[in-house]
């Protein structure tokens, strides 16, 4: 990687020391790194002791057949017992597990651990009644309502792996996932609320079920919006069953079975670069150990915290850090049904006295765009810790998040991980690490990461390359559902014994890690490696720019050329006539002439998935004047039309 491209982010020299009181009382202190280094398996064995096991394991890790790992071999446990029953038994039944906030104002519910236990038990009994047995797969396609968590835990209780499909996905996407994991039961709702209106879900399920032939036997439907839907009840020989009919009357007593530590917990589909989505398989003991430990360590979770992860449950962050991690830790959390409306989040922080907020850079940049007057109007003094996940956080957004949302007193933990890793892998520890804006810092205790070159040689401090993981970790994916070969090929075949994450990264002079985006997003312009992130970060540091996305478009002369799409801040108006030239110059100044975008398009929106990732693939299609590809995973598929109309007016 060229010196020039590394210099921009690395010249970021602001440091934020951990607050003294947090450091003094931190769950995890500096010594944890050494302890984990000296005996990694003992370290994870100790972390596993945080859970309740039926039978204790005989062996922490079996890595005799890499890359197929087995963690806590011989141990048995039940994930739902760990997430609910044991807290009730410990006398915390009255503690609120979920403060649920619906999108319509004043539509709220507080659910205690005791209530959650009853509800999960009822749902487990109802699913049994519908014929769900240990090992059967259940598809879940729901909005952000408490029943989605209940449904997941009920499946876990039975040992029936769930596959949650994000509610914004199309009927086709749902059908392909149902087919791939052969689910006989789908749990859904009539609809959900989005941007102030009821939006139907059940019709997509009907369509998907239709496409999958006779596979699906039952569709269990929660009534959320009360809107009109087609109904094919069992009386008429159909598949549909109302949740309130099946679950509400079921017994709240359910004797849980202890499952093998390696019993499948869930399959989560994530898109690969091409072809059919990959079904990432997570199992029980290691996954629960990895998520609960990291949730406790990275967020420094205390008994009286009010934690809020804003991710949708249809995304891995919603699985690890809304469902399993926090519930295994007996935390009180907020769950919000809606999307980021102006001011609404801050109202929620104020109302529920949220202490820990975990969100994505894209949301932060949206709020930056709206202006600080909005959050400034709320009392957010309850906050003590902020987290970021999903993409590299540019220094501007980090500092804004820290200052405006965190009142300049809350540490920001930038957490790097993937659907595949299951748990946070690289992150500051809030009581230990002095944060650098834009850096995820260091592998957590018990995790071993490095940055290597094409020949798997460690690049050393001050250099860039590929991020790899060197040792197995508890919540790692076990395989791709039904496709061991693709699992090996995708992650383990590039270099012997190393997990290839697909991300570019660099080590600064202190050895701290800076993520540079997917390696497929790393451009090569005239033989210079340029990171999309780095140029985006430079663009966003311009006062008129709210958000930016950069792609490398094929170019006859330079191999690839930098093409940028920018959203201007509301205060910048249309940016003025010379805005494009002004921004090109700005990038040249920030990074160097080589990084100057060939083309900059001012656009009203960027195409994003519901988990907030910019779909650069689509922008690349625009930049290379191709027909725009598959838009079904976009949160809002009309965005591409807006961008294409702009294309005509591009310079
Ligand atoms: C949890 C999640 C994984 C990809 C990953 C990387 C990017 C996630 C990041 C980050 C820089 C962070 N990513 N967190 N990049 N800094 N803190 O997002 O899972 O949806 O599977 O995405 O997201 O590129 O490889 P997933």
TrEMBL record:
<dbReference type="GO" id="GO:0003987">
    <property type="term" value="F:acetate-CoA ligase activity"/>
</dbReference>
<dbReference type="InterPro" id="IPR032387">
    <property type="entry name" value="ACAS_N"/>
</dbReference>
<keyword id="KW-0460">Magnesium</keyword>
<keyword id="KW-0547">Nucleotide-binding</keyword>
<dbReference type="GO" id="GO:0019427">
    <property type="term" value="P:acetyl-CoA biosynthetic process from acetate"/>
</dbReference>
<feature type="region of interest" description="Disordered">
    <location>
        <begin position="1"/>
        <end position="28"/>
    </location>
</feature>
<dbReference type="GO" id="GO:0005524">
    <property type="term" value="F:ATP binding"/>
</dbReference>
<dbReference type="GO" id="GO:0046872">
    <property type="term" value="F:metal ion binding"/>
</dbReference>
<feature type="binding site">
    <location>
        <position position="540"/>
    </location>
    <ligand>
        <name>Mg(2+)</name>
    </ligand>
</feature>
<feature type="compositionally biased region" description="Polar residues">
    <location>
        <begin position="1"/>
        <end position="10"/>
    </location>
</feature>
<dbReference type="InterPro" id="IPR045851">
    <property type="entry name" value="AMP-bd_C_sf"/>
</dbReference>
<keyword id="KW-0067">ATP-binding</keyword>
<feature type="binding site">
    <location>
        <begin position="414"/>
        <end position="419"/>
    </location>
    <ligand>
        <name>ATP</name>
    </ligand>
</feature>
<keyword id="KW-0479">Metal-binding</keyword>
<feature type="binding site">
    <location>
        <begin position="194"/>
        <end position="197"/>
    </location>
    <ligand>
        <name>CoA</name>
    </ligand>
</feature>
<comment type="function">
    <text>Catalyzes the conversion of acetate into acetyl-CoA (AcCoA), an essential intermediate at the junction of anabolic and catabolic pathways. AcsA undergoes a two-step reaction. In the first half reaction, AcsA combines acetate with ATP to form acetyl-adenylate (AcAMP) intermediate. In the second half reaction, it can then transfer the acetyl group from AcAMP to the sulfhydryl group of CoA, forming the product AcCoA.</text>
</comment>
<dbReference type="GO" id="GO:0005829">
    <property type="term" value="C:cytosol"/>
</dbReference>
<dbReference type="InterPro" id="IPR025110">
    <property type="entry name" value="AMP-bd_C"/>
</dbReference>
<dbReference type="Pfam" id="PF13193">
    <property type="entry name" value="AMP-binding_C"/>
</dbReference>
<feature type="binding site">
    <location>
        <position position="529"/>
    </location>
    <ligand>
        <name>ATP</name>
    </ligand>
</feature>
<feature type="modified residue" description="N6-acetyllysine">
    <location>
        <position position="613"/>
    </location>
</feature>
<keyword id="KW-0007">Acetylation</keyword>
<feature type="binding site">
    <location>
        <position position="545"/>
    </location>
    <ligand>
        <name>Mg(2+)</name>
    </ligand>
</feature>
<dbReference type="InterPro" id="IPR042099">
    <property type="entry name" value="ANL_N_sf"/>
</dbReference>
<keyword id="KW-0436">Ligase</keyword>
<feature type="domain" description="AMP-binding enzyme C-terminal">
    <location>
        <begin position="534"/>
        <end position="613"/>
    </location>
</feature>
<dbReference type="InterPro" id="IPR011904">
    <property type="entry name" value="Ac_CoA_lig"/>
</dbReference>
<dbReference type="InterPro" id="IPR020845">
    <property type="entry name" value="AMP-binding_CS"/>
</dbReference>
<dbReference type="GO" id="GO:0016208">
    <property type="term" value="F:AMP binding"/>
</dbReference>
<feature type="binding site">
    <location>
        <position position="317"/>
    </location>
    <ligand>
        <name>CoA</name>
    </ligand>
</feature>
<feature type="domain" description="Acetyl-coenzyme A synthetase N-terminal">
    <location>
        <begin position="30"/>
        <end position="83"/>
    </location>
</feature>
<feature type="binding site">
    <location>
        <position position="518"/>
    </location>
    <ligand>
        <name>ATP</name>
    </ligand>
</feature>
<protein>
    <recommendedName>
        <fullName>Acetyl-coenzyme A synthetase</fullName>
        <ecNumber>6.2.1.1</ecNumber>
    </recommendedName>
</protein>
<feature type="binding site">
    <location>
        <begin position="390"/>
        <end position="392"/>
    </location>
    <ligand>
        <name>ATP</name>
    </ligand>
</feature>
<dbReference type="Pfam" id="PF00501">
    <property type="entry name" value="AMP-binding"/>
</dbReference>
<feature type="binding site">
    <location>
        <position position="503"/>
    </location>
    <ligand>
        <name>ATP</name>
    </ligand>
</feature>
<dbReference type="InterPro" id="IPR000873">
    <property type="entry name" value="AMP-dep_synth/lig_dom"/>
</dbReference>
<feature type="domain" description="AMP-dependent synthetase/ligase">
    <location>
        <begin position="90"/>
        <end position="473"/>
    </location>
</feature>
<comment type="similarity">
    <text>Belongs to the ATP-dependent AMP-binding enzyme family.</text>
</comment>
<dbReference type="Pfam" id="PF16177">
    <property type="entry name" value="ACAS_N"/>
</dbReference>
<feature type="binding site">
    <location>
        <position position="542"/>
    </location>
    <ligand>
        <name>Mg(2+)</name>
    </ligand>
</feature>
<feature type="binding site">
    <location>
        <position position="526"/>
    </location>
    <ligand>
        <name>CoA</name>
    </ligand>
</feature>
């Amino acid at each position: 990687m060229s010196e020039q491209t590394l210099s921009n982010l690395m010249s970021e020299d602001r440091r934020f020391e951990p607050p003294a009181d947090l450091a003094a009382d931190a769950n995890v202190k500096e010594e944890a790194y050494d302890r984990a280094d000296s005996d990694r398996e003992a370290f994870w064995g100790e972390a596993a002791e945080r859970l309740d096991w039926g039978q204790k394991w005989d062996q922490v890790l079996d890595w005799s057949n890499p890359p197929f790992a087995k963690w806590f071999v011989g141990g048995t446990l039940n994930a739902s017992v760990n997430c609910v029953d044991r807290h009730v038994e410990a006398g915390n039944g009255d503690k609120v597990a979920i403060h649920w906030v619906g999108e319509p104002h004043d539509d709220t519910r507080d659910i205690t651990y005791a209530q959650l236990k009853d509800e999960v038990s009822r749902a487990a009994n109802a699913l049994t009644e519908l014929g769900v047995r240990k090992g059967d797969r259940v598809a879940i396609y729901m909005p952000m309502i408490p029943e989605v968590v209940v449904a997941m835990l009920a499946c876990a209780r039975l040992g029936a792996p769930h596959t949650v499909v994000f509610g914004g996905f199309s009927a086709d996407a749902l059908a392909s996932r149902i087919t791939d994991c052969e689910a006989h039961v789908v749990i859904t709702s009539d609809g959900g609320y989005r941007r102030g209106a009821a939006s139907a879900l059940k019709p997509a399920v009907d369509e998907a079920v239709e496409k999958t032939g006779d596979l699906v036997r039952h569709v269990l439907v929660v009534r959320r919006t009360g809107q009109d839907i087609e109904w094919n009840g069992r009386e008429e020989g159909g598949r549909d069953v109302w949740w309130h009919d099946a679950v509400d009357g079921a017994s709240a007593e359910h004797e849980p079975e202890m499952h093998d530590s390696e019993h499948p917990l869930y399959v989560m589909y994530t898109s690969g670069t091409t072809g059919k989505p990959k079904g990432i398989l997570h199992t029980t003991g290691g996954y629960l150990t990895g998520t609960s430990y990291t949730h406790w360590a990275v967020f420094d979770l205390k008994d009286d915290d009010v934690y809020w992860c804003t991710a949708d449950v249809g995304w891995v962050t919603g699985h690890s850090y809304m469902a399993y991690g926090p519930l295994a830790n007996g935390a009180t959390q907020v769950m919000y049904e809606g999307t980021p409306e102006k001011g609404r989040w801050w109202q929620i922080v104020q109302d529920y006295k949220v202490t820990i907020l975990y969100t994505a850079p894209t949301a932060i940049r949206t709020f930056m765009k709206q202006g600080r007057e909005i959050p400034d109007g709320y009392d957010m003094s309850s906050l003590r810790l902020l987290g970021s996940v999903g993409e590299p956080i540019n220094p501007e957004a980090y500092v804004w998040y820290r200052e405006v949302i965190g009142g300049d007193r809350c540490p920001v933990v930038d957490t790097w991980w993937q659907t595949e890793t299951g748990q946070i892998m690289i992150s500051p520890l809030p009581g230990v690490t002095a944060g650098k804006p834009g850096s995820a810092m260091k592998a957590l205790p018990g995790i071993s990461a490095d940055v290597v070159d094409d020949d798997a040689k460690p690049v050393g401090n001050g250099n860039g390359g590929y991020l790899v993981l060197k040792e197995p970790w508890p919540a790692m994916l076990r395989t791709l559902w039904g496709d061991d070969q693709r699992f090996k090929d995708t992650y383990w075949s590039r270099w012997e014994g190393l997990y290839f994450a697909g991300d570019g990264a660099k080590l600064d002079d202190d050895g701290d890690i800076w993520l540079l985006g997917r390696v497929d997003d790393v451009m090569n312009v005239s033989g210079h490696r340029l990171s999309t992130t780095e140029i985006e970060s430079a663009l966003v540091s311009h006062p008129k720019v709210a958000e930016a996305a950069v792609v490398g478009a094929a170019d006859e002369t330079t191999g690839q050329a930098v093409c940028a799409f920018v959203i201007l801040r509301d205060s910048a108006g249309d940016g003025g006539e010379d805005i494009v030239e002004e921004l090109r110059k700005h990038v040249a100044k920030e990074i160097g002439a080589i990084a100057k975008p060939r083309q900059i398009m001012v656009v009203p929106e960027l195409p994003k998935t519901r988990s907030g990732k910019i779909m650069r693939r689509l922008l690349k299609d625009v930049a290379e004047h191709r027909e725009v590809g598959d838009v079904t995973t976009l949160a809002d598929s009309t965005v591409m039309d807006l961008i294409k109309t702009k294309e005509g007016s591009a310079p």
